[in-house]
């Protein structure tokens, strides 16, 4: 907690229900979330892009007033801006924190009472496709709109006649765009912008290395050390460290689904998993991924997506789990999908957390699970996670000292924070590890806003 924190007394935002113990963070929240009429300003900025306009659901999205260029669901704007504050946290030479002060006090949510137990709750059921790597069993329907998907064989032409083209609620603010702007296409054609960095090599000599501007490697080992030093963490699980944090370029639009696919591909390449030969050591660009998804549809894999989207090639339409699954299946890369929905008194986010906990426990030997080890590292792949309007990559799972569970995620909407960039490869214990971890955590306060989730696991 920062030196200006006010103990147990929570300060309230004068404009909304937000509360925090740290006055510095509250000031940052007000500056980012409540500038002069931000919703009106954002709406005016959105009007400047006529290709994004459409007659349906025009009030669903606003442009981020922070200036990242993202069109954000109006209901998620406050959280989006708070995460901008969190991503700005930096370190000084001694490990002291600079930038927006973030109190590590956990936001309140309905109690989960989560424990690191080997026993599954027999009442927590979710839809899982046990053989989703078989091309004839796939996810049907769009994920982005939060509609419930069924796991069934590919529909016939007569069955597909009942499908409708989706709108902005499911496909985002550019649902009716025929083609993305030429400047954006040119940016995406290269796949990434590379910068040349000079580093000290293993032999002590200076070497030049080309680094993608929107990629960061070795983030997971840094998160591991932060969790190890965070006294608020009871136990944490991590996937393989061979995953790159890949994030969006400024103003690129709604490509989070593609960026999460790229993160899974980065693991396939860096861990040399089956199927890595399809990529020749290179992360496909967004335009490449669009072509690959369209080719998967041509093969009859989740081809109803073409009807519902009207085609995605050259557009900024949102994609989701069915498209990610179609791409991997078309390449013979095995994956399994699961869906969770709140029903019969069971909350979707509780079922999601239980499933993710089981997944990470499956990657640990029993002796390690029964030990007092705080950090449990695995070689498991990351998980693709989809909810209404956004997707993330799950790289870890933690239980805090209060018994509540958090997902640790790579969010493509936010760049790697300066603090993490400084700690990669040369870890120095920060004065408050939890502040640095805030932008990487998604707990019940975030998850319980959504009633449906989908996941995709590489197997």
TrEMBL record:
Residues 137-162 are annotated as: Disordered. Residues 233-456 form the UFSP1/2/DUB catalytic domain. It comes from the Eukaryota. Residues 145-154 have a biased composition (Basic residues). It holds the Pfam family Peptidase_C78. One of its GO terms (molecular function) is hydrolase activity. The keyword Hydrolase applies. Keywords: Hydrolase. This is UFSP1/2/DUB catalytic domain-containing protein. It comes from Talaromyces atroroseus.
């Amino acid at each position: 907690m920062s030196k200006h924190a006010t103990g147990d007394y929570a300060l309230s935002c004068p404009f909304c229900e937000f509360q925090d113990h740290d006055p510095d963070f509250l000031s940052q929240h007000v500056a980012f979330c409540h500038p002069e009429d931000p919703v009106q300003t954002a709406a005016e900025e959105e009007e400047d892009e006529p290709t994004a306009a459409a007659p349906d659901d025009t009030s669903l999205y606003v442009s981020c007033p922070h200036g990242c260029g993202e069109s954000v669901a109006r209901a998620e704007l406050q959280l989006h801006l708070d995460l901008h504050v969190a991503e700005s946290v930096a370190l000084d030479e001694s490990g002291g924190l600079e930038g927006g002060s973030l109190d590590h006090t956990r936001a309140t949510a309905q109690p989960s009472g989560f424990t690191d137990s080997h026993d599954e709750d027999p009442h927590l059921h979710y839809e899982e496709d046990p053989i989703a790597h078989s091309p004839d069993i796939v996810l049907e329907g769009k994920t982005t709109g939060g509609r419930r998907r069924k796991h069934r064989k590919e529909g016939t032409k007569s069955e597909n006649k009942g499908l409708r083209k989706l709108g902005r609620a499911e496909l985002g603010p550019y649902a009716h765009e025929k083609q993305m702007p030429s400047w954006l296409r040119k940016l995406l054609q290269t796949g990434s912008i590379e910068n040349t960095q000079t580093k000290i090599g293993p032999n002590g000599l200076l070497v030049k290395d080309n680094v993608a501007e929107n990629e960061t490697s070795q983030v997971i080992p840094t998160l591991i050390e932060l969790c190890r030093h965070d006294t608020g963490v009871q136990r944490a699980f991590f996937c393989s460290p061979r995953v790159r944090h890949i994030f969006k370029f400024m103003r690129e639009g709604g490509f989070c689904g593609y960026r999460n696919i790229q993160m899974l591909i980065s693991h396939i390449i860096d861990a040399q998993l089956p199927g890595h030969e399809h990529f020749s050591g290179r992360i496909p660009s967004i335009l490449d991924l669009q072509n690959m998804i369209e080719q998967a549809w041509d093969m009859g894999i989740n081809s109803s997506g073409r009807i519902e989207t009207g085609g995605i090639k050259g557009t900024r339409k949102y994609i989701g789990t069915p498209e990610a699954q179609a791409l991997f299946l078309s390449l013979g890369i095995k994956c399994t999908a699961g869906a969770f929905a709140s029903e019969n008194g069971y909350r979707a986010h509780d079922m999601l957390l239980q499933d993710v906990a089981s997944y990470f426990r499956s990657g640990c030997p029993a002796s390690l699970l029964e030990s007092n080890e705080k950090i449990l590292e695995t070689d498991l792949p990351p998980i693709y996670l989809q909810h209404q309007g956004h997707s993330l990559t799950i790289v870890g799972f933690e239980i805090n000292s209060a018994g509540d569970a958090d997902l640790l995620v790579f969010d493509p909407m936010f760049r790697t924070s300066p603090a993490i960039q400084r700690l990669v490869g040369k870890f120095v214990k920060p004065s408050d590890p939890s502040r640095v971890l805030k932008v990487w955590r998604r707990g019940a306060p975030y998850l319980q806003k959504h009633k449906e989730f989908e996941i995709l696991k590489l197997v």
